[in-house]
Amino acid sequence: MPTTTQEMAAIVSILASNNETFAVKSGGHNPNNYFASVDGGPLISTKMLNEVLLDTAAETVRVGPGNRWDEVTDALDGSGYTVVGGRIGNVGVGGYLLGVKFTGGLSFMSTEYGWAANSILEYELVLANASVISVTESSYPDLYMALKGGGNNYGIVTSYLLKAYPVGDIWGGNLIFDATDEISTAILAAVRDFTENYDDDKAGIIVTAERTLATLVDIWVIFLWYNGPERPEGVFDKFFDISDFKINTCKTQSVNSLLSGNNWAVVKGSVYTIGTETMPLPSAENGPEVMGAIFDHWVNVSNTAQLVPGLIASVAFQPLPKKLAQIAREKGGDMIDVDDDIDRIVLELDYSFLSSLSYSKIDGVMQETYGGFKTIVEGYQDSGLLPQDVYLPLFQNDCFYPQDYFGRLKPEKLALARRVQAEVDPKGFFKTRTGGFKIPSA
Description:
Layout: H1 5-16, E1 23-25, E2 43-45, E3 52-55, E4 60-63, H2 69-76, E5 81-82, H3 93-99, H4 110-113, E6 120-126, E7 132-135, H5 141-146, E8 156-163, E9 165-166, E10 170-178, H6 181-196, E11 203-212, E12 217-226, H7 237-240, E13 247-248, E14 251-253, H8 255-261, E15 271-280, H9 287-303, E16 312-320, H10 322-330, E17 344-353, H11 359-383, H12 411-424, H13 429-433
Parallel strand pairs: 1-2
Antiparallel strand pairs: 3-4, 4-8, 5-9, 6-7, 6-8, 10-12, 10-13, 10-14, 11-12, 11-16, 15-17, 16-17
Helix pairs in contact: 2-8, 6-9, 9-11
């Protein structure tokens, strides 16, 4: 556990002198095997790189990668400032910012300030040759861009300088519903409408269906956020109009209180797999059919795994409105470079279960689920019910290990990733010695 950047550099120097595979683990975001774990080689934890230093005059926060987001918000609690970060407190800082939630962080505040990576002002980076550099837009512009969605291919980040934003009390919490057919139809329509009619950039949601198959529990969980002290008029009405929710935890609270309160959604002691797909937003007319087909496919495939011990299946519908893409570009852009021509929905899949002995079964279930999503989307594009010839990149932090994250980027961004990697790691130290999504050769 290095405690300083210099100690991390010394570790890299030692690793460069041998052939051991290794892994670097921050708080933990991507559960794919060997992405932040290793079999036989050293595991380098950034847990002790956990500074949170607010500079109110500069309106910046220096954050170590070993933090989790609720530790960051706890340190900032009462300061009047926050940062663009994770939506569940238990999520780790390092993987979230580098792994591109799309491009380093999908946040409740993304329609105000872009992806979390769009608010990173500086990366302190240990390179493959064990040198330490400060990466900013002016010092290393190409590397600065490549780090906004390029994963762990360029070095080890030991601190981030983030833009701090003024904040007071916020409003939010969870709505939980039984997943009856009627409620499911209403929620799918509500999230579609919310994505298209994103009238207030201070609002954010995650709409998640969860099935605990062993006990046949089907629920919807809506995570709500508003960057203001009161529920805004009209913005969330279609969710509240469903009315027969089982639980409503929404209230005025601090950012730290909300993020910590969302930690109940993290099931500890289980094996996790994740996967993702991106879809164009269907029209209001076609929405019931298209959204219903996606949801029904998830239900049907999940049913094939109902005998797996401890299985919990979930699918999240996450708005990616045009407004978010516009803000991200205005703030300097990123590797994902989402166009602002259409609204999109990011589909996030999770299957958690008790024993690694079930991994091969769930591996197949996961690939069948997101593969089916892609087939459904392409079918509706061919029939004219979804827009054709649109850019649909993958969400790296939720990609399953076989998914082709870099292959779904724009060609010019992939070319940038390759060029920068060749410049900063010409011997392929990080490409060959660590796991994660690797930049394919030309």
